[in-house]
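Module 6 notes. Inverse folding takes a fixed backbone as the condition and produces residue identities as the prediction. Think of it as a translation problem where the source language is geometry and the target language is the twenty amino acids. Below is one complete input and output pair. Work through it position by position during the lab.
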């Protein structure tokens, strides 16, 4: 098995757990090599191991792009919804082939001047100055009421446990084929998150006294003029991820988010 290792944080370069992981995989007959960008991925690579937290996983997703190389998140961070597995949990299933490869939808964000980018969790727009931001949203050409808020978010089901969750969006299982649209700190309080099919095309335009807005795609950001028009849809290719056979999303909700935990039940 040919495995690429992606380590984003320099602080992990001397981590003894990584040395132990390398040694165990090599002892199992795996060919290992390190990657820093997309050009480093060799033909015939069976998987890319993202070593770090969820931020590293998001960077790894963009790195593999449309190559079809599946990504396995190995958690050296904190929460770890995307980088779900501890280093000691991955070696035996990988060597035994006890895993499945799943497809995760990706967002394609297109700014009308031709700029496009890909994200796994979400894209957001935010006010850059003190003035409130008005966001005009259309879904497949059908207009929603103008949303006056600090910003607006479009998330995938994978991103439902990320920023979307913090702004009141629903939790969706990763295999759910939907997009989540949610205001960020809305002024008109009768506007709530809405879930639409992932076949939808979401177009955004903006109103503000400020001249610029901030746009983010996962862990990247850029500044655009307020006159920009943005179109968001599902990308034509998906991200392949590795799920170990004993993995369970509901268990992850309970163990990582303490979902539904109540002191009366302890």
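Target side of the pair, the amino acids:
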């Amino acid at each position: 098995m040919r495995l690429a290792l992606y380590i984003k944080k320099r602080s992990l370069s001397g981590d003894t757990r990584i040395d132990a992981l390398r040694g165990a995989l090599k002892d199992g007959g795996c060919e290992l090599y390190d990657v820093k960008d997309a050009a480093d991925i060799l033909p015939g690579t069976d998987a890319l191991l993202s070593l770090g937290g969820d931020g590293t996983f998001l960077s790894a997703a963009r790195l593999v792009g449309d190559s079809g190389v599946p990504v396995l998140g190995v958690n050296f961070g904190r929460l770890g919804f995307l980088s779900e597995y501890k280093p000691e949990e991955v070696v035996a299933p990988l060597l035994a082939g006890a895993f499945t490869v799943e497809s995760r939808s990706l967002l394609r964000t297109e700014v009308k001047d031709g700029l496009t980018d890909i994200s796994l969790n979400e894209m957001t727009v935010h006010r850059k100055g003190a003035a409130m931001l008005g966001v005009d949203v259309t879904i497949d050409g059908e207009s929603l009421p103008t949303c006056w808020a600090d910003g607006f978010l479009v998330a995938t089901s994978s991103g439902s446990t990320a920023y979307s969750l913090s702004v009141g969006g629903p939790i969706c299982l990763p295999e759910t084929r939907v997009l989540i649209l949610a205001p960020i700190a809305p002024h008109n309080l009768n506007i709530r998150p809405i879930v639409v099919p992932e076949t939808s095309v979401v177009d955004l335009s903006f109103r503000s006294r400020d001249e610029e807005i901030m746009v983010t795609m996962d862990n990247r950001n850029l500044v655009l003029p307020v006159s920009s028009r943005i179109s968001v849809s599902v990308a034509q290719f998906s991200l392949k991820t590795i799920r170990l056979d004993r993995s369970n999303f509901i268990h992850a909700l309970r163990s990582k988010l303490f979902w539904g935990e109540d002191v009366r039940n302890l």
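Reference fact for the lab report: The mean pLDDT is 91.
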